[in-house]
Write a structure and sequence with these properties.
Chain A has 154 residues and is mainly β. Chain A has 3 helices and 11 strands, in the order βββββαββββαββα. Chain A has a 6-stranded mixed sheet with strand order 8-1-2-11-10-9, with no helix packed on it. In chain A, strands 3-6-7-5-4 form a 5-stranded mixed sheet. In chain B, helix 12 runs antiparallel to helix 13. Classes of the chains: A mainly beta (154), B alpha+beta (724). Chains A and B meet through strand 4, strand 5 and strand 7 of A and helix 12, strand 21 and strand 22 of B.
Amino acid sequence: MTEANIAAGEPREFVAFRIGVQEFCIDIMSVREIRGWTPATALPHAPAYVRGVINLRGSVLPIVDLAERLGFAQADASARQVIIVVQVGAQIIGLLVDAVSDILTLTTENIQATPDVASDFVKSFVRGILAIDGRMIGVIELDGVMSTEMEAAA
Amino acid sequence: MDTMAAIRETFFQECEEQLAELEVGLNAMDEGVADSETVNAVFRAVHSIKGGAGAFKLDRLVRFAHTFETSLDLIRSDQLATSPAVIRTMLRSADLLADLVKASRSDHPVDETRVDAQIAELKALSENAKEAPPAATAGGGEAEGLDFQPLLLAIDDLGPPESQTARYAIKLIPAPDLYRKGNETVRLLRELSRMGDFRVECDTQHVPALDALDPEGAYLSWRVELTTAEDEAAIHELFEFVVDDCELEIVVDRAGGAPQASAPAAVAPIAPSFVAPAFASPIASAPAEAPETIEPIESLAPATAVEPEKAKTEAAKPEAAVSAATIRVDLERVDRLINLVGELVINQAMLSQRVLEAGLARSSSVAAGLGALEQLTREIQEGVMAIRAQPVKPLFQRMSRIVRELTDATGKIVRLRTEGEATEVDRTVIERLADPLTHMIRNAVDHGVERPEVREAAGKPAQGEVKLSAAHRSGRIVIEVSDDGAGINRQRVREIAIKKELIAPDAQLTDGEIDNLLFMPGFSTAQTVSNISGRGVGMDVVKRSIQALGGRITIASRPGQGSIFSMSLPLTLAVLDGMVVKVADQTLVVPLTAIVETLRPKAGDVHALGVNARVISDRGGFAPLIDVGQELGYRRDAADPVGSVVLVVETEVSTRCALVVDAIHDQRQVVIKSLEANYRQVPGIAAATILGDGRVALILDIDTFVARTNRSATAQEPLLAAVG
């Protein structure tokens, strides 16, 4: 998932999704499956962006509300939202997003550095920016999604 | 006897793991990538095999493992350099050890000469090491000497004389004339058996169907493996009178080399064992029928004059049956299966719900089919769950065997009392608990319990007691090993720790800290190095094994009254009896073991104490009321206890608390799912489970939950804390 293992110039596929009006994407290699919203069991003492846990074929899967994680206003979870199940290191987590919009094939050259306007907080998990057909798509660095802050919140 | 066989089987299964570890370690040493931990692991593997073998009186195995271990100990203490030659000897020894384990498992005889040769080789290494650096033995010299002394006994049975032995493969196919002339094959075979190490196989392939059988025909032939010091001429001499009436073939298999065949001691005076291949004729299809069919043949053809009893036992015990009783399955596969079956149950429940919603009558064939499906899925689930969770009983039984064996060896009188044998523990826990528990039991008998005369002098009964108990306690499994012995001799522990430079001579240690020195690698209070314990591998192995299981181990000891080693292990995948409760629209599971009683409080039972705290009168005392929903952040305000349900729970430290929940739904067994696997530990929550509707429910960890509540209460209400 880090740039080190992406050979420069080699095309990679990314799953693009919408949160509100903004678009983001993640490396397709880390996506395990995409599934509909199921009510989650709330976890006590969890950061606000952890919506709870759901049952994924027998294993307990924490759900991260990406909107909340990125600091957007939290919309009520609805059946129209989808969960992107991703592998982060040894763990599997679900990312709650509004909709999956596209699958993009691009090379690392397409990725631009995150502009300085973004806060350090956003930069910690938005690895870069893609400009395609006038759309701006943020590339999510999954390692940052469930990182340090979670420990701090405990 | 069945349990005994099961215990024995477990030992051999574990041996396989130990042997694998041994080989991996030795290979690492061979490649020069080993650190001291690898050497320790190798040593421990052999040590464990020796320990278990001792329990089953597999003397040959113990004897060899002990010699092997002694050499490894020298490597471990850097007295023996790991030159390639040394490692090769070690690897060869490991192979022999594996062979001995296999031989012990199938009760096959062992090639003594090979064992003795290997023992001699190992001893030569040890002796060289001792002679070479005499300075090195200055420190532990005494212990080493003691260690080495008993081994000399082994030299006594340094096997048969080193004369030229050779192995012969003899094939004997008698012609009918052989019998007509009054010769008997059984006599020939008997003579052969007297010449040395002897093994015979009878070939019954050519026995025709009964109606085609010529009573005076010769249908049987034999293959003999003979290891003997006699020369080939002597064998030929034996067949002198029959050589014209049979086909005889004598082949020297491997002259002068180490013979492979069985040891003479293990072979009965005349024990030509029959391995009867499947009868070509339709007479006998099942092996059980074999003796019946052989008997009439015997009366007709004198050729089969060897006891049919032998034939029966040997034929009914094909080699493969020895290991086929159980299979070892990767636990991950079982887990996957459990998860899938769990999903199946949930899907089936949802399907039933849909069928009902679709308005199909309960009597319809669809509903009936679903009912049958439900039954099946439940049975599958039960079956699969049974694979994972097992009672600790077999494990405890192994321990009592070890205690018995130790009592014999030490002259102490010790009784093992077990409690909570039915406690179900995850299979992984059971498997991985065997070694540490063995060490702890050994320690309890060897170091804990005093000799009878000492006990009587101290006013205690001559018979010591070691207690082994298991219990589910607030989401963990607690296994305790306690003895009523002398307790830990802290003064001595301290002295040894200073002598072994584990602590500074002027270190100020509390009793608890001194006790914990026992867990340090290389610490051993044993005065002599014996077969039983005391190489300093015991307690640090125990601690590491327990920690590897995610558990904790604690010692409590009182001088003159004994010690308690308490292991607290997580449930990981164990099955838990829980009460399913509802709190603020969330479903929670409370471990049943923690619940003392459930109440529906009346207004008069609840009393306010301080600003926010409330207590409930419970059996003459007062228990603090904790609103579970509020504490977990499911609701802002505490629910009114009146009209709610109160669960009175007891924590590990025996404090009582009253948990307020909205309703009790169910009481059932749930499968524990780790939260840490994909998330992290949540305070107050032991784990999660998946309920019948497919939703995840959290399992409360009573201890941390209550402890946390107390902490936050103290922070909020200093006044009350001061009062309490």
